[in-house]
Amino acid sequence: MRAAALHLAALVDQKVLAHPDRELVVAGGRRWSYAQIDDSAHALASALADLGVRGGDRIAIDLPNGPEWLVTLLAGARLGTTVVPLDPALSFHELRYQLRHSEVTAAVVAESTGGVDFFEAYEELLPLLPDLHCLVTVGGAERWTDGRVYHWDDVLAKGKHRRRPAHESDPAREPLAIVYTSGTMGKP
User: Fold this and answer.
1) CA–CA separation, 144 vs 184, rounded Å?
2) Average pLDDT over the chain, rounded to an integer
3) Residue 25, SS3?
4) Would you say residue 1 has pLDDT above 50?
5) Out of 1-15, 23-37, 68-82, 151-165, least confident range
6) Which of 78, 79, 44, 39 is nearest to 63 (CA)?
7) Residue 163: what pLDDT?
8) Please, are residues 162 and 46 in contact by the beta-carbon 8 Å criterion?
9) pLDDT given at position 3
10) What is the DSSP letter of 68?
11) Taking Cα atoms as reference points, which of 86, 76, 172 lies closest to residue 129?
12) H or E, element range at 19
């Protein structure tokens, strides 16, 4: 089997064609089918591309487990980006280190989780991260933001009616993710 056929985006395409209405995610009271997750992933990929995110860029995912996490992963795979999953429990300094070290171009983050205001932390981080051009916030009420911060619902709505092609380069050569592990003797 060709490597491109083993790429995550291609595998999801196969499942969507075979079972569009089958449940893929059950989270609390929410249920999402393969087709619903795929439609959202295409919308997010299109919107991120319109915001300048390209294949080879890196997208951080700083969300608790849920449908939005999976949608972001699939959108990244469709764009040919590398995702950087982050632990929502990271301290400010750990978060800054991982975002800077991985040279993240875009990040999808929870506005708040577990009583912690992530939006506030990212407002402090944005001036310190010159590579971070786009921040998409999930949940909560819309807040005033600058030209680099967007709300999840708005981003999905903008990308909903466009279908961009999947990655333009060879997916077999693109890393899907950069995963940081805790360092026992130093930085991750």
Assistant:
1) 40
2) 85
3) strand
4) no
5) 1-15
6) 44
7) 65
8) yes
9) 47
10) H
11) 86
12) none
